[in-house]
Every structure is written in C-alpha cells, then in structure tokens.
C-alpha cells in the first residue's frame, strides 16, 4: 500500500528552507513523483510504501 503527501512551498518560505524540507522527507523514505510550479507556487507530490 502506498501513502501520498503533497508538499507546498510557503509564500514567505525561502527556496533553501523548502529544499531542506523536501530532503528531510526524502531521508524518511518519501520520494518525489511529480513536481509542479506556477509563478511562485511550487508543489511536490511524494509517495512512500507502507
């Protein structure tokens, strides 16, 4: 069974902080399967096997 998580970059969040957040999820076993951006909005869909 797979679990999904949507990670969004906050309006006032720096790019570096967002990258650190995504890397911390990756270290927990999550992997990015889709990345989308529109203007300043950045969204990553991540999945993890249970």
Question: Could you characterize the architecture of this molecule?
Answer:
The N and C termini lie close together (6 Å). By secondary structure, the protein is α+β, with helices and mostly antiparallel strands. 4% of the residues are buried. The chain has one helix spanning 15-27, and strands at residues 2-8, 31-38, 41-49. The mean pLDDT is 95. The chain has one domain (2-49). It is built from one helix and three strands; from the N terminus they run E-H-E-E. Strand 2 (31-38) and strand 3 (41-49) form a beta hairpin.
Radius of gyration: 11 Å
What percent of residues are in strands?
over 45%
Q: Estimate nothing, just give the exact number of structural domains.
A: 1
- The side-by-side strand order for the widest beta sheet comes to 1-3-2
| Average pLDDT taken over every residue | 95
Helix content: 25-40%
The count of helical stretches stands at 1
Distance between the termini: 6 Å
Q: What can be said about the biggest beta sheet?
A: 3 strands, antiparallel
Q: Regions with pLDDT < 50 over 5+ consecutive residues?
A: none
Oligomer, anyone? single chain
Strand pairing plus helix content: what structural class? alpha+beta
Q: What is the H/E string?
A: EHEE
Spatial shape = globular
Number of E-type strands: 3
Present the secondary structure layout.
Layout: E1 2-8, H1 15-27, E2 31-38, E3 41-49
Antiparallel strand pairs: 1-3, 2-3
Give me some keywords for this one:
three-stranded antiparallel β-sheet; 3 strands; 1 helix; alpha+beta; 50 residues
